[in-house]
Amino acid sequence: MSLTIAIDGPSGSGKSSVSRRVAAALGLAYLDTGAMYRAATWWCVQQDVDLSDQDAVSALVLELPLEMGVDPSGPTVHVAGTDVGEAIRESSISTAVSAVATNLTVRDEMRRLQRAIIDAERSGGFSSGGGVVAEGRDITTVVAPDADVRMLLTASEEARLARRARDVHGADDAAAVDATRDEVLRRDADDSTVSQFLVAADGVVTLDSSGLDLEGTVDAVLAVVSQVTGSSR
Ligand SMILES: Nc1ncnc2c1ncn2[C@@H]1O[C@H](COP(=O)(O)OP(=O)(O)O)[C@@H](O)[C@H]1O
Ligand SMILES: Nc1ccn([C@H]2C[C@H](O)[C@@H](COP(=O)(O)OP(=O)(O)O)O2)c(=O)n1
């Protein structure tokens, strides 16, 4: 049986880490849609385009030579044959990505690509039975509102800042948390002008991971999947 799981949430809520593990546990493909917006941003920066020039950014992204690898044990992102998996996580990209992700032509194109990948995986790409865990900001609402399981992963601002500070600066003291505010809070504010990921839409199950560790959050998602699908696969 093919299974599509859609997970949205703000920065640092744990979408990527949790979705990847859920996909591995269920033998499904894993699609990180945020990585696609990051790759588009990397490409525009590489091509020296002014990110505030909406037309120039749109034109470039419509030709984006992007390839997403969806194996949860080693997801990959290639642009024009270059492995950009690490480069797209740099702070310079995190700071710039919302300018590209709020461009509506870019969003249309990214959604088209995301639906194509999800559809291909539904009918058996990575997973023999077919299926995918796709995560981002508008997967439950716009990209795959027909997913079998739709979840909003949340966490308190404090937990999200501390997690991102540990990831980026290796510490969660006051200075590290402060240095992370722009990457988390300003970005969420900008991103939420074009996507609704702070409150669950109708039919979307909310999971607050503030008081859970990674393993506990994965287990909680798997429990929701079992409940919704009526099987533990
Ligand atoms: N309960 C939890 N759920 C998910 N991630 C957690 C949890 N506690 C700590 N973390 C850590 O927080 C970070 C979450 O980052 P990430 O998965 O990139 O979030 P997002 O994709 O939502 O921005 C990871 O380093 C992860 O290991
Ligand atoms: N479906 C999506 C996924 C991500 N985005 C945007 C919002 C984010 O600022 C960037 C990067 O997303 P990503 O999930 O990598 O962000 P995190 O750093 O994990 O919080 O892309 C989006 O607009 N729609």
Automatic annotation (TrEMBL):
Domain Cytidylate kinase: 5-226
Keywords: ATP-binding, Cytoplasm, Kinase, Nucleotide-binding, Transferase
Molecular function, one GO term: dCMP kinase activity
Cellular localization per UniProt: Cytoplasm
Catalysed reaction equations from the record: CMP + ATP = CDP + ADP; dCMP + ATP = dCDP + ADP
Gene Ontology CC annotations of this record: cytoplasm
HAMAP family: Cytidyl_kinase_type1 (MF_00238)
Annotated family: Belongs to the cytidylate kinase family. Type 1 subfamily.
Protein's name in the database: Cytidylate kinase
Species of provenance: Sanguibacter suaedae
Encoding gene, per UniProt annotation: cmk
